[in-house]
Structure formats: structure tokens, C-alpha cells
Write a structure and sequence with these properties.
Blueprint: E1 2-5, H1 13-24, E2 33-36, H2 46-57, E3 64-68, H3 69-72, H4 76-79, E4 87-92, H5 104-120, E5 123-126, H6 129-139, E6 146-148, E7 173-177, H7 186-195, E8 202-206, H8 213-225, E9 232-236, H9 240-248, E10 252-255, H10 264-270, E11 276-279, H11 284-288, E12 298-301, H12 306-318, H13 320-334, H14 340-356
Parallel strand pairs: 1-2, 1-3, 3-4, 4-5, 5-6, 7-8, 7-10, 8-9, 10-11, 11-12
């Protein structure tokens, strides 16, 4: 089974997911041939488009090909003509038109391209039940062709918190793990943090800085304007031991996202017993979930509402009982998280169904 992905070296949830399932599918009996299609997706240049076309053309009739949605949905003119010859599946991490900051006309173009691709392929895999439902409704897809493979989580050591990650500053340690882009809402988070500057805390923003340099610059200016330079640290991308250390030193994960299909940072935090304060948008409530006893391991607030976010922060920072409740619930939720084996098995079931279908994949 060939798989075409975007750059797996880039530190994003989607690429972590792609690399993990490519690694784990062979353990379930699948032969996987990975093809990295580097490019500025979903705005590929001629070379990236040509490389994807070459990968597809090189696949034998009837081959099952799993494509990352960031790649496939951007170029229906490359993908759709192959849908009758190949058994194509598309893994959608984020609908292309949902990216924050797109001009309306650009969003409409991406949305139409995605619809054309997803209607043509044999299977669509979404990363949350919320996302699957939205794709079916928004694009008019056949529900039986849309499957769910929720990201897994590796259970880690319980985070001691209190600065074990080595970040500067005193008080509770807040952590935001997300690429620094408008969709992730760091600007609104800084505005909320400024309103609780009378309380002790520090906050680290961990995530890629290259997608929107202008936004990163405006964010740094906002931090300086509020005089928070010594309390808010824009750390940039981290992975491996450095990211583990960030989680270990965190007392609370904070996500102010404006759109999310799931939210892997949420389950990565919960896998270490770190509670979550997040926006109730897209698949984030699904990721936060409930502990086995029904308790919620954190707080959900409306998106694009710095006042609501600030209020939740003030309650969490100012009320030791609230912090204890959230921490206990997070540790209980930790024991109920599904691992990556569950993800891979869900994906494999969808692929097996497509492989067994007679006739054309479209």
C-alpha cells in the first residue's frame, strides 16, 4: 500500500499521526511504501504537483493508496483522474477551508477542491467523530465511505508540574502546544493572560513558528506591549525529550484554538495527568472527554472570547480547590485514553473495507 504524505519531519500533529500509522500498519500485516511529497501544501508548486502525479502514476491498477488530505484535497486535477484506476483513501486532519486567516475567495477555492477530491475517492478517514459528521454534511459524502480513526496517546509518567520543564518564572506553569498561527489563538490567549497578570503564573508557547511569520511578530509585539516578556516564553518547536520536559513541567495545558478537528496536544497532556483549559470548538471537547467516573479533566470555554478564557484562568489560578479537582480528573482520564494501536486498527479496518470493494474505487 503506497502512502503519500507531506513532510514528516515538520513538527505537527498531522505529521506525527502520519508517521505513526505508517510505522504501525506493518504490524497488522500491511505492506507500506511511504512517499514523501515535499511542497508548500496546500499551495504546491509545479515540482510538488509533478511528484504527486508521478507517485500515483507509478502505482499499479487496483493499488490501495492512502493520501494525506493536505496533499490530496489541494489538487483534485491530479488525484481525481486516478480515482477510477486506484483505490484511493484520504486522511483528513483539517478541512482546508477551516484554516483561520484565509481570504474568503481562497477559502472557497480550497473548499471546492476538497469537495471534488473527497467525493471521488473510495474512502475518507477523519480524526474525530465530530470531523466525520462535518465532512459528511458539508461535502455531501456517502456516510458509509467516511471512517473515524481517532489519534492515540502514549501514556507517559505523571507530570510533577511546578516548573520541572525548566521554564523561567514563578507560580503555576501554563503550556500551549500548537503551531503559532491565527487558528491556534495565541493572540487571544495573551490578551486573556494580561487580565490575570496580578496572579502568579508563567506560560510557554511551544510550536512551529514558520507558517505565519507576520502573526508571530504581532504576537511578540503584543507580549511586549502588555509587559509580559518575563512571563510568556515563545519557545518555538520542540519534539522528543524537549517536548516531554515541557509537559512534565506543566500544571495546565491551555489551547485557545478557533478550529480543531481533534487536538492531539490535549491527549498528550492528559496522558501525563495534566489538566486542560481549551475552547469548545470542533473536536476539542471529544479529545478532552471524561474520566471513567464522569468528571471532566479541565474546562471548556467559547472560542474567540478572551474574556471567557480570562475568567476560566482566574478561577483556575485563584482557587486551589479547582486546580486539585482538575488534576484528579486528568489523572483519572489518563487511564482511559486509547493508544495508537487502537488508531491503527481503526484505520486498517477502513482500508480493508476499501480493498475488498469490487469494481471501481470511485
Amino acid at each position: 500500500m503506497p502512502g503519500a504524505v507531506d513532510d514528516p519531519a515538520a513538527p505537527s500533529g498531522g505529521n506525527v499521526y502520519d508517521r505513526r500509522v505508517c510505522r504501525d500498519l506493518p504490524g497488522l500485516g500491511w505492506q507500506v511504501h511511504e512517499h514523501v511529497v515535499a511542497g508548500d501544501w496546500p499551495r504546491p508548486g509545479a515540482a510538488a504537483r509533478a511528484e504527486l502525479a508521478r507517485v500515483l502514476a507509478g502505482s499499479a491498477d487496483g493499488d490501495l493508496v492512502l493520501l494525506d488530505g493536505l496533499v490530496a484535497c489541494a489538487v483534485p486535477d491530479v488525484v481525481v483522474p486516478e480515482a477510477g484506476r486506484l483505490r484511493l483513501a484520504v486522511l483528513v486532519h483539517l478541512p482546508l477551508g477551516d484554516e483561520t486567516g484565509l481570504a474568503p475567495e481562497r477559502a472557497a477555492v480550497l473548499d471546492a477542491a476538497e469537495r471534488r477530491t473527497l467525493r471521488a475517492v473510495g474512502a475518507v478517514i477523519a480524526t474525530s467523530h465530530w470531523a466525520a459528521g462535518r465532512l459528511v454534511e458539508h461535502h455531501g459524502l456517502v456516510p458509509e465511505r467516511v471512517h473515524v480513526a481517532v489519534p492515540g496517546a502514549d501514556i507517559g509518567p505523571l507530570a510533577p508540574g511546578g516548573g520541572a520543564g525548566g521554564e523561567p518564572g514563578g507560580g503555576p506553569r501554563l503550556l500551549c502546544v500548537a503551531s503559532v498561527t491565527p487558528r491556534k489563538g495565541q493572540y487571544e490567549l495573551v490578551e486573556a493572560l494580561a487580565t490575570v497578570a496580578d496572579l502568579p503564573w508563567s506560560c510557554s508557547f511551544v510550536g512551529g513558528l514558520g507558517q505565519d511569520p507576520g502573526y508571530v511578530e504581532r504576537l511578540r509585539e503584543l507580549i511586549a506591549r502588555y509587559g509580559l516578556d518575563d512571563r510568556v516564553h515563545v519557545a518555538g518547536p520542540r519534539g522528543g525529550p524537549a517536548l516531554n520536559a515541557s509537559y512534565a513541567g506543566a500544571d495546565l495545558l491551555v489551547l485557545a484554538s478557533r478550529a480543531e478537528t481533534y487536538g492531539m496536544a490535549v491527549t498528550e497532556a492528559l496522558a501525563r495527568g495534566v489538566p486542560v483549559l481549551a475552547t469548545a470548538v470542533g473536536g476539542l471537547p471529544e479529545a478532552v472527554g471524561h474520566a471513567p467516573d464522569g468528571s471532566v479533566p479541565g474546562v471548556l470555554v467559547p472560542p474567540d472570547d478572551p474574556a471567557a478564557l480570562a475568567g476560566a484562568l482566574r478561577r483556575w489560578l485563584g482557587e486551589p480547590g479547582e486546580r486539585h479537582r482538575a488534576k484528579v480528573a486528568a489523572r483519572r482520564r489518563r487511564t482511559a485514553l486509547a493508544g495508537w494501536e487502537t488508531t491503527t486498527r481503526s484505520l486498517a479496518r477502513a482500508l480493508e473495507q476499501l480493498r475488498r470493494e469490487p469494481g471501481e474505487a470511485a
